TrEMBL record:
SUPFAM superfamilies: P-loop containing nucleoside triphosphate hydrolases (SSF52540)
Pfam families per record: Dynamin_N (PF00350)
UniProt biased composition (Basic and acidic residues): 582-598
GO MF entries: GTP binding; GTPase activity; microtubule binding
UniProt protein name: Dynamin-type G domain-containing protein
Source taxonomy: Eukaryota, Viridiplantae, Chlorophyta, core chlorophytes, Trebouxiophyceae
Biological source species: Apatococcus fuscideae
Alphabetically ordered keywords of this record: Coiled coil
Highest taxon, organism lineage: Eukaryota
Residue ranges constituting the Dynamin-type G domain according to the UniProt record: 36-330
Parts forming coiled coils: 99-126
């Protein structure tokens, strides 16, 4: 081990091992039963050739990765370190989707990672999918180390466009991982001037004060020869606050050197074994210290020495990890108690479900669930805040993506009215339905008639069966109803699909509310599928029926033009025909004294008659008259359709969910009960599922109880040991883990441990107080 320190007492090491073992069990419990416990992770971030992969190998004490010049890591590598006291040498497992967890040797693991990186390098690609490796090792904490691809500083210019795209892809991938708050960021800087914030530039966008970031200057052995004076080395070792954030994790940066060379039996291998590699690491650390003291012309202080070398960095991360563990104890013990109570309650409920598989009891449970489900649907339509909007709500943009937007005849999405209420809010149920109807009303209600071409007007004129004159009124009606029918019929389908989407979303929300209120039928998937299928079928049927009524209304409006519905045409025609001579205007002209009669004015009536009765040469006046008529008829049809569609969807689509669906669901379920109860509940499958659940809950309960006892005993011992004998390796630096902080945390841990121990004893002497199941009385 790199941090093997003979000064550390065996009792402390034993207590630390017990702590790691307890967290290992906690981690296993979290993975096996999906519990909210997890170990922290260290995310390694740096630019390409900063030495990230080499540092990860040095921290772990053995080589497994593809290390070299250029960008070698092209996929993130997640290393799940698992404590295992029986593993003197690391046991490696490659985790894949196809084959699960496969045990591999270090050489096989290295070959796999190298081949994968070489393949991506040939393809000039990066892949966000992680290579997942699990490693079991003695004295190794439950820790996840994530080695990310190196950040790329691409040069400008078109010739470097591919490298620029790769830079953006890698930066986005790494930033997404850095946003996980539980991650400790290991920020690698390959520089001798702290004013150049290469990696910190990206990290400080997520962690502005570096409060969860450990800054590491790599390649110290190549950095030292670049300093000419001892003052430069002093500035590098202890950068002032103007160059580096004083609030960084650890207070000051760490400095590491990793000897070059690979482990193996090949001709170019430098190290014959991992033990040889670890010895080289210790030797490199000693030589760096000697070189620093020579250039500074003094011995390093204890705080300075604690930041030089891979071994010191690993020791700091272990202490930091142990502190995180100890700080989490006050929250873990109550969580374990809560999980115990929940598991015990589920165990009793499962046993009761096994006893309630009688047909009459199943029918009664189904009826209770049915009525509760109908109540939740009605509640969602009326409005509720019981369901979290961040999980179940949809903004208008989300609704457009999943339920479709209103698309015009030109294939473009209709713009959303700027004043549409609640467009950016996450809504569900009745509120979402109302917003969609408002969007339809404002969007479709403001559509204008499409442009009319002269060819359309001439073709619509045709020829009459009594004379060869032109009936421009009929022409306008033909054009208007054709364009209205083509315009509005697709919107009926789009609106029906949108409303069906909104109401279908209410099913999972109602199920969530039933689970929250303990009204859900666990294990009866066949019954739940029947209820869901009935609900979806009713929505589809109601949507088809309502859409059919709307289409009939559209057909009646566009089949025969009723002028009483289109009164807007009068004002437009009056404006368009303002130039036509009328009796009133003739009298006005007679009162006026004019020197001569205007021949153009006398011929206005003749021009109007000629243009509107028998002249097929389409003039400006005729075109304007037809366009005005078409627009007014179209607007009348539009207003009538919008009002009729809103009424019909409210009456024949929304209200049946409240009025008709409950009766339909009751009749269908009662009829299914009478035919075959097994087709409704599948009693045999339910019984098998309940038996499996019962066994899983018993196992979970046993593990939780064992962890309660373990956390109730080992931490009080660790607190006493650390309080009585401080760690000789602990550093006096203010930013390091202070003794007083550790003791304060451990005093709280001791109090919690006593409480948990008292609780464990009470459980031991009163097993029946927890649950009434016989398996719960067997205490480990």
């Amino acid at each position: 081990m790199l941090d093997a320190s003979p000064e550390r007492s065996s009792a402390f090491r034993t207590g630390q091992e017990r702590l790691y073992e307890a967290y290992n069990d906690l981690h296993s419990l979290a993975q096996d039963f999906e519990k909210p416990f997890d170990a922290p992770a260290i995310l390694v971030v740096g630019h390409q050739t900063d030495g990230k992969s080499a540092l990860v190998e040095a921290l772990m004490g053995f080589q497994f990765n593809h290390v070299g010049g250029g960008t070698k890591t092209r996929r993130p590598i997640t290393l799940h370190m698992v404590y295992n006291s029986a593993c003197v040498q690391p046991n490696c497992y490659l985790v894949t989707e196809d084959y699960g967890e496969q045990e591999v040797t270090l050489e096989e693991l290295q070959d796999h990672i190298e081949s994968e990186n070489q393949r991506l390098e040939r393809e000039q690609q990066f892949w966000a999918k992680e290579i997942v490796v699990k490693i079991e090792y003695k004295f190794c904490p439950n820790l996840t180390i994530i080695d990310t691809p190196g950040l790329i500083a691409a040069a400008p210019g078109r010739r470097n466009s591919q490298l620029q795209n790769s830079s953006k892809a890698v930066e986005g991938m790494v930033r997404m991982k850095m946003e996980q708050k539980e991650y400790i960021l290991l920020c690698l800087e390959d520089t001798n001037d702290w004013s150049n914030a290469t990696t910190r530039r990206l990290i400080m966008q997520v962690d502005p004060h570096l409060s969860r970031s450990v800054v590491v200057s790599t390649k110290l052995d190549t950095r030292l020869p670049q300093f000419a004076r001892g003052s430069d080395v002093e500035l590098f070792l202890r950068p002032p606050g103007r160059l580096l954030e004083p609030g960084m994790l650890g207070g000051c940066p760490f400095f590491t050197s990793v000897p070059s060379g690979r482990v193996g039996n090949a001709k170019d291998a430098i190290f014959r074994s991992n033990e040889h590699f670890r010895e080289a690491l210790r030797d490199r650390e000693d030589r760096d210290v000697t070189e620093l003291e020579h250039r500074l012309d003094r011995r390093l202080e204890k705080a300075e020495r604690a930041r030089i070398g891979v071994g010191q960095l690993r020791r700091f991360l272990e202490q930091l990890l142990q502190r995180r563990y100890l700080e989490n104890v006050p929250s873990i013990v109550p969580l374990l108690e809560k999980e115990y109570r929940n598991a015990a309650a589920r165990l009793v409920a499962t046993q009761e479900e096994l006893n309630d598989l009688h047909p009459d009891k199943l029918k009664e449970k189904g009826r209770h669930f049915r009525e509760a489900f109908l109540q939740k649907l009605a509640l969602l339509l009326r409005g509720t805040v019981a369901a979290p909007p961040e999980r179940f709500g949809e903004t208008l943009a989300d609704e457009h993506i999943r339920g479709g937007a209103f698309v015009g005849p030109d294939g473009k999405t209709l713009p959303v009215f700027e004043g549409l209420p609640n467009a950016h809010m996450r809504l569900f149920g009745g509120a979402q339905y109302h917003r969609a109807m408002a969007e339809f009303r404002t969007g479709i209600g403001q559509l204008i008639c499409p442009d009319i071409s002269r060819e359309e007007i001439v073709n619509a004129c045709g020829i009459d069966d009594f004379h060869d004159g032109v009936n421009y009124t009929r022409t306008a009606c033909v054009i208007a109803v054709s364009k209205a029918r083509d315009m509005f019929e697709p919107f009926l389908h789009q609106l029906g699909y949108r409303f069906a989407h909104i109401l279908r979303r209410m099913l999972p929300i109602a199920m969530f509310l039933l689970q929250r209120d303990s009204q859900f039928l666990n294990g009866h998937d066949l019954f739940l599928k029947r209820v869901g299928a009935s609900y979806h079928a009713f929505i589809d049927e109601a949507e088809r029926t309502c859409r059919g009524k709307c289409q009939e209304d559209l057909m009646s409006t566009t089949r025969y033009v009723t002028w009483s519905l289109h009164t807007k045409s009068r004002s437009s025609l009056k404006s368009m025909l303002s130039k036509v001579t009328t009796p009133e205007r003739q009298e006005q002209r007679q009162r006026d004294v004019r020197p001569a009669r205007d021949p153009e004015e006398e011929n206005q009536v003749l021009d109007v008659l000629e243009n509107t009765l028998w002249n097929r040469q389409l003039g400006v006046m005729s075109e304007e008259i037809v366009a005005a008529l078409v627009c007014q008829i179209f607007e009348g049809i539009r207003d009538h359709v919008v009002q009729a569609v809103e009424l019909k969807f409210n009456c024949f689509f929304l209200m049946p969910i409240v009025d008709s669906f409950p009766t339909r669901l009751r009749e269908e379920l009662e009829a299914a009960y009478e035919e075959d109860i097994d087709e409704v509940f599948d009693v045999a499958a339910v019984r098998n599922a309940l038996d499996l659940r019962l066994k899983a809950l018993e196992s979970e309960l046993h593990q939780v109880e064992r962890l309660q006892r373990k956390f109730a005993t080992i931490h009080s011992t660790l607190a006493q040991q650390m309080s009585s004998k401080p760690d000789p390796e602990a550093q006096p630096d203010e930013a390091m883990i202070s003794q007083s902080q550790a003791l304060d945390g451990l005093s709280k841990v001791a109090q919690v441990a006593k409480m948990a121990d008292k609780f464990a004893k009470s459980m031991e002497f009163q097993p029946a107080a927890k649950v009434a199941h016989p398996s719960l009385s067997a205490r480990a």
